[in-house]
Amino acid sequence: MVLALQGSYHGDTLGAMEAQAPSSYTGFLQQPWYTGRGLFLDPPTVYMCNGVWKLSLPEGLHLEIPKLENKAFSSRDEIFHKIRDKSDLARNYSSYISEQLSQYSGSGGFYPIGALILEPVILGAGEMQMIDPLFQRVLVNEC
């Protein structure tokens, strides 16, 4: 089993397809053998709207971090800055990831997670998404 992100794309070979979440690329007509072998987290994304960089939280994180609903950044460099590693948001990300891993372990999953497969910052084949680099750093540290 792997730990990966929803919307990730690792390639079209059999093993790579098994290491990604269900999508239009893994449907029965595309990949009849697909079973999806992993825990797939829904990551926060960053995007630019009207010249302003913004943070978008997935539903699971939205409930835990409601005050950051409209978080904006002054520049792309601010998004990548390591000072964010000491923020409340980093601690919330860490709690969320730990909780997801605990739920997976406690659910009686037969196979333990053996690897983290992560595309750096930009992910997806169908729709490109920019993952919050802070979330990825926290995820790597949690692993």
From TrEMBL:
Q: Which Gene3D superfamilies match?
A: Type I PLP-dependent aspartate aminotransferase-like (Major domain)
Q: Does the keyword Transferase apply?
A: yes
**Keyword Cell wall biogenesis/degradation belongs to the record:** no
Q: Which GO terms describe its molecular function?
A: adenosylmethionine-8-amino-7-oxononanoate transaminase activity; dethiobiotin synthase activity
Q: Which GO terms describe its cellular component?
A: mitochondrion
GO terms of biological process kind: biotin biosynthetic process
Domain of life according to the entry? Eukaryota
Task: Identify the InterPro entries for this entry.
Answer: PyrdxlP-dep_Trfase_major (IPR015421)
Tell me which UniProt keywords the record has, alphabetically: Aminotransferase, Transferase
Q: What is this protein called?
A: Uncharacterized protein
Species, as recorded: Quercus lobata (Valley oak)
Lineage start: Eukaryota, Viridiplantae, Streptophyta, Embryophyta, Tracheophyta
